[in-house]
Design a protein that fits this description.
The complex is a heterodimer of chains A (139) and B (252).
Chain A lengths: L1 H33 L6 H14 L3 H14 L8 H22 L2 H17 L4 H13 L2
Chain B lengths: L24 H58 L3 H15 L1 H13 L3 H10 L14 H21 L11 H25 L3 H21 L4 H9 L2 H12 L3
The chains are: A mainly alpha (139), B mainly alpha (252).
Amino acid sequence: MNKTLKIVLNTLIVVASLILLICLFETISSYKYAHREVEDPAETYAGIFDYLLDNHAYGEVLEDYHFQMNQNFEGAPGYENLYRVGEYGHAAFMARVYDEKGDDVRASACRTQMQSVRGELGDYAFTADQIDEMLEKAP
Amino acid sequence: MVCENCKHEIGPDQKFCPKCGAKNVFAEKHEENMQQFAKDYAATEKEVKSFGQAMEGLGKKAAILAALLIGIIVCNILTSMNYADPDEARDAAIRSDAEKNIETYMQQADSLLESGAYMEYVNLLYAHQLSSSMPEEMNRFRQVTYVAREYYECIDEMEQMILRSDDPDYFDGLDTDIETFCMYLDGFYEVYEVQKDSEKDEIYLGYILDMEEDLRAMVRTYLAMDEDGLQEFLNMSEAQKAVKVREVLRHE
């Protein structure tokens, strides 16, 4: 009886030791994963944003703007330029819709907003001109 | 104790009566008992000692096994903590914030709807996770939210199509955007037809109807259509709509 119990215990100790060893490796790699260097998403996006502007891909800029607004309605730090360009683009887009609809109040509100954002665009003021030009060309 | 023969008092250790010399039966039996007891005691002592020795080894092994099992459990807890999704904590914080500030967000939502900022209204709900799991206090927003979400997708897609890159070397995703837009537009009308009939509140019904007017104006503006052309366009199938939009935007 004692002999059988000893064999069983010895086997369990060997198996548990192997499992513990595997768990230790897993814990070490999970620790490395948790403490890995993560690039700031706003910093990464800054490059993408410039690339989109270089290619006049304002549709994608607006899509990113709406996406960011979905995540952080008040505005996330690091995305200020995207928010300004996006806000301008969306207001300019909607101004024409309201003109067509005959809603002068909202059209005028959009133009006021465009003017206000244009003043804050700084180095990105050219984007407002490009957006206006693209919307003018639209069918 | 007394002698059975002469009734003289004798001690339990005295084997014979000191007066008459008769045998002390009690003393004899007592000695036999004591010898048997000593034998039993020695046997038990031996048994207990040998069992203790055997169990001493097993106890150590059991302790090692228990320590290993505790080690495995600790490692697993640490691993799951390290792999924990940081978004879960963020989402929990957003939900808790939404519960605390529900009144403020409802006022903000009403103000956005009143000013016709339906895109911003949807963004507000998404950002505070009030769209998919709308709390009961926000029941009055339910119908208008269903419609606003579809409206949001239509505007978003049209913006992408109209403000797409004019660089011929840039990735051209217009065809996909057109198909997606037509799908969303049909989706909008499906939801719109149901929700405008089920919305009992005049104010929110007004917003629903206003969103539809916005979309009509948007299609007329950016797809160069008059009211008759728009009506004809809206009656087309999804695939026919896509062909029509492609014709307009690609100048085919």
